[in-house]
Specification:
heterodimer, A: mainly beta, four-stranded antiparallel beta sheet, 11 strands, globular, B: about 110 residues, mainly beta, six-stranded mixed beta sheet
């Protein structure tokens, strides 16, 4: 069974640009959660999608958005990038109420 | 404020030693996860538990719901166990798959 995949793995962007990250969950998993990891703040929840609906949202500005498609694949978008958005972005998929499986992450560097 | 606290932050052990990492949380939860993160960022889910004790190989996780406390034990530690271990909780059924994380414990096992 294929694991969670994330693309791209590495990304370098300039301040003010926007970026889209993609996450393909394990087959059969309808829940996809996104997390941001930085050295200063640790791991923080961004949002969760379940059956194409955003079910939970963390405490991040509106520049951070996401969506989920009918095949459960999810994308997150960050607009007007700031230096502080440099982080490892992780997605995780799960069946409802079960443990989460994490992808390898996308390392975003904003210069 | 819902919080998750881990201790110790850093732990150095000799190969073969018994290791314990602790996690405390502030209010009732629906599930607690123990995660392992290796250099490079990939996160592996070790355990998800809501009561009692689970064992997988040399790893044992316990949770005391009344005391709001969980422990992760590693028996006969090995250098390949060197990683960051992260405790994460799901606060309630309405939280969906949203996780709140502890700061992590950096474990180094020397040969």
């Amino acid at each position: 069974k294929a694991g969670v995949t994330q693309t791209p793995r590495y990304l370098i962007k300039t301040r003010g640009q926007q970026v889209t990250l993609s996450c393909s969950p394990i087959s059969g998993h309808r829940s996809v959660s996104w997390y941001q990891q930085t050295p200063g703040q640790g791991l923080q929840f961004l949002f969760e999608y379940f059956s194409e609906t955003q079910r939970n949202k963390g405490n991040f500005p509106g520049r951070f958005s996401g969506r989920q498609f009918s095949n459960s694949r999810s994308e997150m978008n960050v607009s007007t990038l700031e230096l502080g958005d440099s982080a490892l972005y992780l997605c995780a998929s799960s069946r409802e109420g079960y443990e989460q499986y994490f992808g390898p992450g996308t390392r975003l560097t904003v210069t | 404020k819902n919080e998750v606290e881990q201790s110790p932050q850093n732990l150095t052990a000799q190969e073969g030693e018994f290791i314990t990492i602790n996690c405390s949380y502030s209010v009732g939860i629906s599930a607690l996860h123990w995660l392992q993160q290796h250099p490079g960022g990939g996160i592996v889910s070790l355990f998800m538990l809501s009561s009692g004790k689970k064992k997988h190989g040399r790893l044992i996780a316990t949770i005391n719901i009344q005391e709001k406390h969980s422990s992760l034990h590693i028996t006969a530690s090995h250098p390949r166990d060197s990683a960051v271990y992260i405790c994460a909780v799901r606060w309630g059924e309405t939280s969906g798959s949203r996780l709140t994380f502890g700061e992590g414990t950096q474990l180094t096992v020397n040969p």
